[in-house]
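Build the 3D complex.
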Amino acid sequence: MTIKYTKDHEWVKMDGDVATVGITPHAAEQLGDVVFVELPEVGKSFATDDDMAVVESVKAASDVYAPISGEIVEVNQDIVDSPEKVNEDAAGAAWFVKIKPSNASELDGLMDEAAYNDHVANG
Amino acid sequence: MCDRISQVPTTAGASTFSMEEACHKGKVGMTDLKQLPLDELHRELGGKMVPFAGYDMPVQYPLGVKAEHLQVRAKAGLFDVSHMGQAFLTLKEGTGGADAHRKIAAAIESLVPAEVQKLGKARIRYTVLLNEEGGILDDLMITRLPAEEDAGRLFLVVNAAVKDQDFALFQDKLKDVADLTILEDRALLALQGPAAAGIMEELVPGAGEMPFMSIMDAEIDGLPIMLSRCGYTGEDGYELSIPASQAEAVAKRLLGFEDVEPIGLGARDSLRLEAGLCLYGHDMTPAQSPVEANLNFAIGKRRREEGGFPGATRILEELKASTPSLRVGIKPLGRAPAREGVEIQSVEGEIIGVVTSGGFGPTYDGPVAMGYVAQSHAQTGTDIHLIVRGKAVPAQIVDLPFVPQNYYRGKKSS
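Done.
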């Protein structure tokens, strides 16, 4: 199962017809201690690059953008209740939302892990 | 490094130490940035450097903002605040003599509303520098030096961002009576936290029983320091003014204590916010008088009767009557922090003010903020709304500080 990445440091993992979305450990580290997460309502639809969620650290607030278009089918209440989990396991348990893509081929336009690592390394 | 950080989008944008903003400025103005005397040490310690007030400064160390904040509340932390402006203001006719303090105090009293003439020897006073309209140009510490030969000389510490204009003002307004000596070659370190007194007592016998807001001439390992018991965290602690060339030795000595960690600007901001202390340029500006800024304690009792400071007519009137708005503490009732610039509305939806500092308080374990609201809504306990990302978030006017101040109030009787 491949994981795709955006230039804005979100990751997307396709599982059947549902995509799980989170922020990368690199983004979590750069944000610092996360103290607040706001997630969208289930059933809401987003176009690619729409503001979808908010993550705030002790330092600043950041938008999380929709990496692909689609409808929110599930959100991770755990990270709303315990925002520090984003710092602990950004790539795993601290996923943000699950999206039913409106056009799964949009994933092809995102970066693979090597390209993302390169993006992180070279800005 | 900055390129990478700036990829993480920042929407609120108002946070004082927002990564994107910091990095953007860093890229543009890197060559103009001044370096702290301890620049090399900050980098050795893993400090993440950002531009602040024209200096390249550590915003955090590997511990991280939250842990650094909690460290200062639990044990002790070392801050490099050498960016701040330090100066001596000295009577032109020379120091010494019975009347020298009264004369230099009278001179500076023409610019600030504090009682300086009755300031005791070796004592420090917090006050504000005023413009002709009674607006706040800066806040500052005025110290009456302890040595007899220094009678007629005051030690001033002002904010970095406005130090050039402050110093120009002193030089201009007091040119006939006093000389200003800017202490460019001095570093300023702060050791803050409940463990600070024990550590300082070990290095400087007697330091543990210095009164809050006092100064002493001291030595650490033979290096001369001006040691003040004050700070900007709400905790007990000290500030050490040291010749820049010797600052690293003193900093390393202090960092050698197990209970001391280096602390960056990020935690400095959350600590002072929890303690209800103002950040100049944010929580007070020339647009506000000290009465509006809720800093009446910075106005001396005699001065309230006599006036004689810039904007006295307005300020004395405000003390008797009121001001249109007031600086207050604001507690967002949810978990979402409200950052600087967030609009404040009444529960009926009328715009009544603006947040001037806001973030997350690690010790308070929740969002904390301060700002200005209309007097009609400034009463403690008033319900208000904060407009965060377009949505009304319930909040309440609360008393400051959010976390009790832990200043030294004399030896505890056993």
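The first helix of chain A runs from residue 25 to 31.
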